[in-house]
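Residues determine shape. Next comes a sample protein:
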Amino acid sequence: MSEGHSGETEQGKALFEELLWVHDMLRRDLDRIEHLAREVASGMPGAAVEAELRELKTGGPLWQLKVNCLRYCRIVHLHHNLEDVMLFPALRDADPAIAPVVDRLEADHVRVSDLLDAVEAAAARLTAAEEDARADVVLTLDELHAHLLEHLDYEELNAGPVLRRLERIPGF
């Protein structure tokens, strides 16, 4: 396989570009969710929130994979599960020195998973009469937004160089 100046492989470069593509979609939809959180905090009616969530489920390429439920949460869970099972072991094999980075990314995945579950639970309780649920939705979305963006940036910066050198990911 041809390699660039920094030891990049064509496959590794393609894998990194795919990671960036998925992360860009996650960031774009996080922006939409952040806007929705502000609307919820301002008293947006429950029916309007549901309509926005339905639009979010179907508005982009990833959302077309829907079956039901909040697709965003499921897509992030799926993306992280694939990384945990396939990507991270390959990164560890390719460069054992990356172990602390992968350890942090794995811990981030657990935290993001908990936050996604909290967002789903808060959204399920959201009604026009339940102000506590509105506050919970806003707080959990804000926390998810901040933590997930930090996670994506960290992963790209710290795992990207090793990912770009991979020849392949076993099973992928």
